[in-house]
Amino acid sequence: MSSCSNDECGGGGGGACGGGGPSSCFEATNQPSACGAAAPQRISARTSIDAASRPSSQSASSAATSGSTNYWWRSSPQFATMVDALPPAYNFEIDKTLARVNKDKAKRIALQLPEGLAMFALTLADLVETFGGPQVEFAIVLGDVAYGACCVDDLNAKALGADLLVHYGHSCLVPVDCTVIPVMYVFVTIAVDVEHLVESIKLTSPVIGPSTRWALAGTVQFTHALPAARALLAAEETEDGQKAYPCMCDRRGAVPQAKPLSPGEVLGCTAPSVPNLDAFVFVADGRFHMEAMMMANPNATAFRYDPYVKEMVREEYDHTGMRQSRRHAVEEARGRLERGGTAVALFGTLGRQGNPRLVKHVVERIEEESSRARVVLMAELRPDRLKALGADVYVQVACPRLSIDWGDEVGDAPLLTPYEVEVARGHVNAWWGESPRAYPMDYYAKDAGPWGSSSAVKGGRLNAF
What we know:
Elements: E1 3-4, H1 6-9, E2 41-42, H2 77-83, E3 90-91, H3 94-104, E4 108-112, H4 121-131, E5 138-142, H5 154-159, E6 164-168, E7 183-186, E8 189-190, H6 194-202, E9 214-218, H7 226-235, H8 251-254, E10 279-283, H9 288-296, E11 301-306, E12 311-315, H10 319-338, E13 343-348, H11 356-366, E14 373-378, H12 383-389, E15 393-397, H13 400-406, E16 415-416, H14 418-424
Parallel strand pairs: 4-5, 4-6, 6-7, 9-10, 10-11, 13-14, 13-15, 15-16
Antiparallel strand pairs: 1-7, 2-12, 3-8, 11-12
Helix pairs in contact: 3-4, 6-7, 10-14
């Protein structure tokens, strides 16, 4: 499944359309973290993407739609011309989108895209207005930044009079039964040369080989290629007839899953933790999401395959620097809270980034002793705005990576995540000490602790507005 709509997701179950809450809010930036990264080691030479390996026209992307649907727009020369303006390797699910607009008789359709897809927004809007049906009054493009699925902006879309929102480029982490208007998610899967990916993985030997525990992961645009790559690797044999890449993990371990994400899918704040993992290959054009996988599996050797340039690189992450920085922030916050310092619970209002129930839980944690929390709403957390507030401690319910990557930019006031305030208040064992463990990257995982956004919606709806 490559898209998610109101009738497909139900209450936000598992799989690609799982519920839980927003995703990482730096989906499109793909920037290294503030902790820095060592220069990547080149594994294979750059090559261009072969156009022949790309999927056919956008109009063929309708496998999940009923075969009885009348795609009347396909006979229009204008439709073909407009679709040709979109890159053939990108699956925008045009047929499925137009079928949904026609079926729902939607009149005002809002389109929301991350920065990396914004260049296609006007063409998509033209397609919806022209072929969405005679009832369509207009298609509007939401121009505010959309870093991730956490930024799905159904609230503003409704305020603008829209009766359907089409959100591109992210999976359905905000359950569709929790939005104020119907939302259709289009993942925008992108073609991958699976054979080249597999050949590149072979070059990592012996790091990935017969006796190692390895895994495949990536961003949602590329996870569709992971099962095929795993199958090709599983079929490889050595000269003596033994499996060349048996993967010492179980079948699910080779393409691990952090539910409610789909198998192999990783967000900048949520990644599967695989016990005793030796190495993994991450399919993406940037390393922001990959860093979450690295943090969740700190002892694993990490490779990144860029499907655009067909290049495999070995990536490094400063685990020691990150952990020391976050430990200092937690210990500083603990001391200030114990002394009754002023605290601010930051509620991210960019789309559905903030979670009202989690904010309430954070406030309760802060106020367990002598401190008092003040809730501040902010669309984008800017260091200069936080410094102007002058609080002693900040705990932000927006994106954990804001604290991990840019927490030091707030000045001397610590900027904690919901997980870190649990540590500061002594409810969770720290990642340092006698039994050190990985810094958890499970913000939207179903099995996260009380600091997770999914935990905050158990027994109730995410929508608290």
